[in-house]
Design goal:
The complex is a heterodimer of chains A (about 280) and B (about 250). Chain A is of the alpha/beta class and about 280 residues long. Helices cover about 35% and strands about 25% of the residues of chain A. Chain B has a single domain, classed as 3-Layer(aba) Sandwich (Glutaconate Coenzyme A-transferase). In chain B, the strands form 4 sheets. Chain B has a 6-stranded mixed β-sheet with strand order 1-5-10-11-12-13, with helices on both faces. Chain B has a 3-stranded antiparallel β-sheet with strand order 2-3-4. At the A-B interface, α4 and α5 of A face α3, β9 and α4 of B.
Chain lengths: ~280, ~250
């Protein structure tokens, strides 16, 4: 069985411009931020990004890496509107395929199950149909004859997710209250890169928590990246909560200034810059 | 008994859950949450509440179930849920917008996105909460239909068989759709608010009955629960302040 460990830089080096990329987590929760930061250090662009969006989208949009975004929302949770995404949208910087949260889930499921689409009772009647003119409906072949939206599969070239623990083979464990949709992102993707707070021996996984916490199966995982604080500044319960103070700083700082100070070099430099910023705040 | 405007709003929001039965209550925002918890503690004891994350909890916070986002979306589709959400814009038929203001292709103001509104409105009885009733919110036409209103639903046939917009509660009053064409009707005024004030703050023509009742008075026990148990810090009056509106 293969050791799939790699660095964040090695993981994102396997991504190419023009790819369709799924990003796990939800809003400003358990986002694979170390992988996003690594991606920002590459020249990868023209991405189609599929995400229940948070600062992952804010940063990639601000940096001009997203050609097309597929989402139901972008939020920082405790700050309802993501300012950098918002600015990019209001400048007209990116194409948007805006769909409902449930349609999004059906699209991931369809991709994971190798189906072209799944029917969903959402979308019809709303302007989701107007702003996504490619969406089709399907009529039940049974006697009810109901019309549904045929949500197309959201097939991903690659998925990026972050969990609490993983082993070197790609088995991933979440210890917080919500799996979000990370296993589905991996199942919907041709290649999945998992960052984690800590890589542990396989035997340790089932010792730390119940088997239900073993969310990601190695057969769906391509690469494993050890990235302590890899979700920072989003939450990664129970290892840490959202760094609200730093998130506020992110939201209030013009993008070039934020990127210049925090995102220039590698992940260690990021952590050092955050630490330095915190020291300045205390003084 | 001096009842504040915010407290009338909580009462009006609580009444949304009357008769809902054993279903999930999904209130979004402070005053809808206070209303749902008040209902759960009084006349709607079978309601299920969440902690806002992945747990179903009793009013004292004791967990009684697990509801991660994925199961929540499944439950929306299954229909055993009723909700109250916000509206950046709403029109006379209850079409709601939370996505953006202006042209969707290049908005003047990007807001949250459609979120779950299309799924919610086709599957669950839906109400709306507007903390500041104004002509910017109660518009002639919403810029993007996220939550589906009655005029849109009317053309959907069997696909809309679970569609129901129950009520809209604002800081001025309570609104329903009990009119022949299912357009918005003024159902109750919070004490101290005039019909004229509501009309001035609404872009479209509301149906106004000859006699408009006042929002019901809270019972003493309800008021005690709001003030001492649910919101001892008084956050409600920051969302709906007393006094003259601008």
């Amino acid at each position: 069985m293969g050791d799939k460990t790699m660095t964040a830089d090695e993981a994102v080096s396997q991504l190419e411009s023009g790819m369709t990329l799924g990003i796990g987590g939800w809003g400003s929760r358990r986002k694979p931020m170390a992988l996003v930061r690594a991606l920002l250090r590459t020249g990868t662009r023209d991405l189609t990004v599929v995400s229940y969006g948070g600062p992952d989208i804010g940063m990639l949009a601000a940096a001009g890496r997203i050609r097309k975004l597929i989402t139901a929302f972008v939020t920082l949770d405790s700050i309802p509107l993501e300012p950098h995404y918002r600015a990019a949208r209001e400048r007209g910087d990116l194409e948007l395929a805006e769909i409902d949260e449930g349609m999004f889930l059906s699209g991931l499921r369809a991709a994971a199950e190798r189906l072209p689409f799944l029917p969903v009772r959402a979308g019809i009647g709303s302007d989701v149909m107007r702003i996504n003119p490619g969406l089709r409906t399907v009529t039940s072949p049974y006697e009810d004859g109901e019309t549904f939206v045929a949500m197309p599969a959201l097939r991903l070239d690659a998925a990026l997710v972050h969990v609490n623990r993983a082993d070197r083979l790609g088995n991933g464990q979440y210890l917080g209250p919500d799996p979000y949709f990370d296993d589905l992102f991996c199942a919907a993707a041709a290649a999945a890169y998992v960052s984690c707070e800590r890589i542990v021996d396989t035997a340790e996984l089932a010792k730390e928590a119940t088997p239900q916490s073993l969310l990601l199966k190695r057969l769906a995982v391509t690469g494993v990246v050890e990235a302590p604080s890899g979700a920072h500044f989003t939450s990664c319960a129970p290892d840490y909560g959202r760094d609200e103070e730093f998130q506020r700083h992110y939201a209030a700082t013009p993008w070039p200034e934020f990127a210049g100070r925090f995102l220039g070099a590698g992940e260690e430099a990021y952590r050092a810059a955050v630490q330095e910023w915190r020291k300045e705040r205390i003084r | 008994m001096n009842v504040s405007r915010a407290e009338y709003c909580v009462i009006a929001c609580a009444d949304i859950w009357r008769g809902a039965g054993e279903v999930l209550a999904s209130p979004m925002g402070l005053i809808p949450s206070l209303g749902a918890r008040l209902a759960r503690l009084t006349f709607a004891p079978d309601l299920l509440l969440t902690d806002g994350e992945a747990l179903l909890v009793r009013p004292d916070g004791t967990p009684e179930g697990w509801l991660p986002y994925r199961q929540h979306l499944e439950l929306v589709a299954g229909g055993r849920r009723r909700l109250m959400m916000g509206a950046s814009q709403i029109d006379r038929y209850g079409n709601q917008n939370i996505s953006c203001i202006g042209d969707w292709a290049r908005p003047d103001r990007q807001l949250l996105g459609v979120r779950g509104a299309p799924l919610n409105t086709l599957n669950n009885p839906t109400s709306y909460w507007v903390p500041k009733h104004s002509r910017r919110v109660f518009v002639e036409r919403v810029d993007l239909v996220c939550g589906v209103g009655y005029d849109r639903a009317a053309g959907l046939g069997v696909s809309a068989r679970f569609h129901r917009v129950v009520r809209v509660v604002s800081d001025l009053g309570v609104f329903d759709f009990a009119t022949p064409d299912r357009s918005m009707r003024l159902a109750a005024l919070h004490p101290g608010v005039s019909v004229e004030e509501v009309r001035r703050a609404t872009c479209f023509a509301l149906t106004v009955p000859e006699e408009v009742p006042c929002t019901r008075e809270p019972e003493a026990g309800e008021l005690r629960l709001i003030r001492e148990v649910l919101d001892p810090g008084g956050a409600r009056s920051r969302e709906v302040p007393e006094g003259v509106r601008s």
